[in-house]
Amino acid sequence: MNTVGERIPVAAVLALGLTQIIAYGTLYYSFSILAPDMARDLGWSTEWVFGALSAALLAGGFAAPWFGRLIDRHGAGRMMSAGSLLAAAALAACAAAPNGAVFVAALIALELASNLVQYGAAFALLVQLQPHVAARSITYLTLIGGFASTVFWPITSALHRQLSWQEVYLVFAALNLVVCLPLHGWLSAGLARSRAAMSTAPVPVLGRLPEGGRRSGFVLMVAGFALQSLVGAAILVHMVPLLSGLGLGASAAFIGTLFGPSQVVSRLINMGFGRNLSPVVLAVIAATLMPLGVLVLALTAPSVAGAMAFAILFGLGNGLLSIVSGTLPLHLFGSEGYGRLQGRVNSARLVVSAVAPFALAFGMIRIGVIPSLAVAVAAGAIAVLAFLMIRRG
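Predicted structure:
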C-alpha cells in the first residue's frame, strides 16, 4: 500500500501513542480501581456505579456516528483537541459532583470525550495525514497504546493510596490539559500545514470491495466486530471472578496477568510477520483465537495449564482486534469518509460492550458458567464466519 516517498509519520505516531496511553488510562482503566470509593461517597453499591458506566458507554455508542462525521468535516486533529478539553472538564465535573445525578451526567460527558481522544479518532488522524501508510502507522500506534493498562493501573493505585478518588481525577484532568491538548493541537496544526503545502489533495486509498458488495460487506464487518466485542467485553470484565468460579482459586489473579503481555506479543508478531497478510485474514485469525481460548478454558477447567492457555490465546486475539478495527475498514472501504465509517463501527462495538458484562453475569446465574462460556464460543464462531464471508465476497 505504500507509495513512493511516503514514510510512516514517526513523530505523529509517537505523540498519538502517548495521548492514547493517557486517554485510555485516565478515562477507562482507572475507573475499576476508583469505583469502590466512588460508590461509598455516592452512597451507592459498586454494581450501581458500574451500571452508570454502562449507561454512559451506551450514550457514547449512540453518539459515535455523529462524532465520526465531525472528524471527517473538521479534521481529526481539531476534534481530538476539543476532546482533550472535554475529557478534562468531564473528569473535573466527576470529581466535583455534589450528587449522583451530576456524577452520571459527567460520566456520560466522559464517554462522549472518549470518542474524540481514543483509537477511533487517532486512526482517523493517521488516515487523514498519510492514507497510504496508515495501516502500518495504526499497527505501531496500537503497540504503544497497548501499554495503557500496564502504565495506569499501578499509577492509579499509587496515587489513590495518597489521594482521594476526586483528587486522582483532578490530576488526570490536568494530564489531559497539559499533555494531550498541546500534542493534539500540534498534530492538528501539522495536518493543516501538510495539506496547505500540497498542490493537490492526497491520493486517497481505494477500498477493495466493489460498489455492489459494499452494503453486505459493511454489515458483515460490523457484525463480526460487534460479536468479538461481545465476547471480549463480557470475558474481560469477569475474567478473575470467572476463573475463580471455575475452581482456579488463588491462581486466577496470576492467570489474568498473562492477558496484557499476550496482546503486546500479538502486535509485535504482526509487525514482524504480518506485513503481507490482508486485514481480512488478520480479522479471521483474531476472531478465531478469542473463542478458541474460551473453548480451551471450558474444556479444561479447573486445569491451571488450560486456563493459562486461555489467557494467552484470548490476549493474542484481542491484541490483533485493536489493529484490525482500524485497518479493515480502510482496506475494504478506502480512506474517503473514514471518520464516519469508524464512528458507525465504534457505535456498534460500544453498545454491545456496554451490555455484554451484564449478559454474561445473567447467563452464569441462570444457566451456569460452562453453558455461558459455550454461548460466548458460539458468538465468536459466528464472528469468524462473518469475516470469512467478506473474504469470499
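Summary: Confidence is low (pLDDT under 50) at residues 1-5.
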